[in-house]
Design brief:
By secondary structure, this protein is mainly alpha-helical. It is 81% helix and 0% strand. It is found in: Cell membrane.
């Protein structure tokens, strides 16, 4: 995400569109890499795959920092997206396999919590580094952190094989399973709304309330993400109703996004919608992963990869759609309303999934 404040008004739509393109390339490659490489590398030692993924991710970020043109930057972001797409779903599957089924929700929540902590610290820190050094400095920091994580996995992570890859028949059955496809579809729509809108948070704040310093709002969003991702796992384990929890998450997410314009008018309430938005956006992944691991217990890595793929594909679609509608003349202040309506449609779909499950039981 780049800061568009202070740029000439004639260039803002182009800058916003390029921002959307860079985000879309990363997330699209993430989405494609997750299911493909999870299948190709299934059965290999988990530690080796995770190290490989972090190596690809670090190379992509280093190449992004060295890119001399926008085209080269897009190619480098694609490489980084492939590495992230391989790493994240396997990390979630590994976490769930290290604990009993009764603690699976908390394991998934801890994994997501670590990712959200990275966002809480990483996004504001990256903005500070970019302001004082350059955006390339931020990418070099991410590259270094990836290398440190590689060393940590080599030293401390247990070396056990990933699950055997599903056969073609099993893979087709997985995709044609009504509950699996419905769960992944809800994940996709949630991501289109939540992560797609996040791409344009700077322009939304500036357009709605003439806010130039977005860092406090990024902190609020990220802190909410930490709260949501660390707490949702315990709720899943205690209630045993991940589908119903997902419906509640979508309801609160819709409220948070619709209330963004109103909240910004009152300083004492301005950060609350961002906290709720971040909390519900991050919390939405664990219930979906839990459902899929229950539906496909023998192919956990593959199903979690499909869910992660849908999550980041939704982010790519949301970022691209945002860039398209902004270039077409839609004001950034109107994006929260359009996104809120999409979340309500997604909530309706999730309620239908829950009702259908209850009828089948």
């Amino acid at each position: 995400m780049i800061n568009v404040i202070g740029r000439s008004k004639s260039r803002i739509p182009l800058i916003l569109s390029q921002t959307g393109q860079a985000v879309s390339v990363f997330t699209l490659c993430y989405a494609l890499a997750a299911p493909i490489f999870a299948t190709l590398l299934a059965g290999k030692p988990m530690r080796r795959i995770l190290v490989l993924a972090l190596a690809v991710f670090s190379v992509g970020n280093g190449a992004s920092a060295l890119a001399s043109s926008f085209s080269l930057l897009l190619m480098a972001r694609a490489v980084a997206g492939i590495g992230a797409g391989l790493y994240s779903p396997l990390a979630a599957a590994a976490a769930s396999s290290l604990v009993s089924e009764q603690k699976r929700g908390r394991a998934l929540g801890m994994t997501l919590g670590g990712m959200s902590m990275g966002t809480v610290v990483g996004v504001p820190l990256g903005l500070v580094i970019a302001e004082h050094l350059s955006w390339q400095g931020t990418l070099w920091l991410i590259t270094a952190l990836g290398l440190i994580a590689m060393i940590g996995i080599v030293i401390w992570f247990p070396n056990f094989p990933a699950s055997a890859p599903p056969s073609l028949r099993q893979r087709v059955a997985m995709l044609t399973n009504g509950r699996v496809s419905a769960t992944i579809g809800i994940t996709l729509m949630t991501s289109v709304a939540s992560l797609g809108l996040y791409t344009y948070i700077a322009s939304i704040l500036h357009n709605l309330a003439d806010i130039n310093n977005i860092t406090p709002y990024l902190w609020a969003w990220g802190i909410g993400g930490v709260i949501g991702s660390f707490s949702i796992g315990t709720l899943i384990d205690r209630t045993g109703r991940p589908g119903l929890l997902m419906a509640g998450i979508l309801a609160i997410l819709a409220f948070a996004i619709f209330s963004l314009p109103l909240g910004l008018k009152y300083p004492i309430l301005s950060f609350l919608p961002f906290v709720l938005w971040g909390a519900m956006g991050w919390a939405s992944q664990a219930p979906q992963q839990h459902v899929l691991l229950h539906l496909q217990p023998n192919h956990g890595a593959a199903t979690v990869a499909l869910n992660s793929s849908a999550n980041y594909l939704g982010s790519a679609i949301g970022s691209a759609l945002g860039g398209i509608v902004l270039l077409a003349g839609l004001a950034p202040s109107q994006l929260p309303f359009a996104t809120g309506c999409l979340v309500l449609v997604t909530l309706l779909g999730q309620l239908l999934v829950v009702l259908r499950k209850n009828k089948e039981q």
